[in-house]
User: Which sequence fits this backbone?
């Protein structure tokens, strides 16, 4: 499973279908992220052609964990049997779903527009302040 934190969002990308073993790993990754202060999860399922019952339970458990932590679970790139299973289970009606991880990330930025920037971002902003803004040159 691939995991990456960007802008306080945890991106999780299972390498294959979500079954019993990968469901346990998925929940553990989310718990660690919550402990680190992450409140929004983007679960990119483009590599997951199938979601077993244990995977559905894990996704529901994660959605509950996120709600209890004032966070969000966003599903991305559902396709094929994974999408059919999600719809048949009823979870498709209650969870946020997006065609791509990029769309989910864009939506997530709208949920949390004021995340603190990193120190590297602060340095970039300081450099930008020293430059003149060409829009206001004529004034």
Assistant:
């Amino acid at each position: 499973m691939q995991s990456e934190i960007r802008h306080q969002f945890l991106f999780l990308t299972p390498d294959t279908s979500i079954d019993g073993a990968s469901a346990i790993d998925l929940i553990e990754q989310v718990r660690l992220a919550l402990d680190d202060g992450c409140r929004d999860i983007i679960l990119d399922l483009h590599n997951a052609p199938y979601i077993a019952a244990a995977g559905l339970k894990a996704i529901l458990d994660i959605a509950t964990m996120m709600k209890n932590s004032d966070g969000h679970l966003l599903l991305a790139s559902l396709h094929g049997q994974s999408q059919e299973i999600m719809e048949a289970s009823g979870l498709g009606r209650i969870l946020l779903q997006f065609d791509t991880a990029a769309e989910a990330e864009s939506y997530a930025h709208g949920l949390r527009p004021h995340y603190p920037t990193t120190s590297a971002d602060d340095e970039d902003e300081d450099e930008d302040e020293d430059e003149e803004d060409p829009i206001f040159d004529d004034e």
Q: What stands out?
A: Strands lie at 2-6, 9-13, 40-44, 72-76, 96-98. The first strand starts at residue 2 and ends at 6.
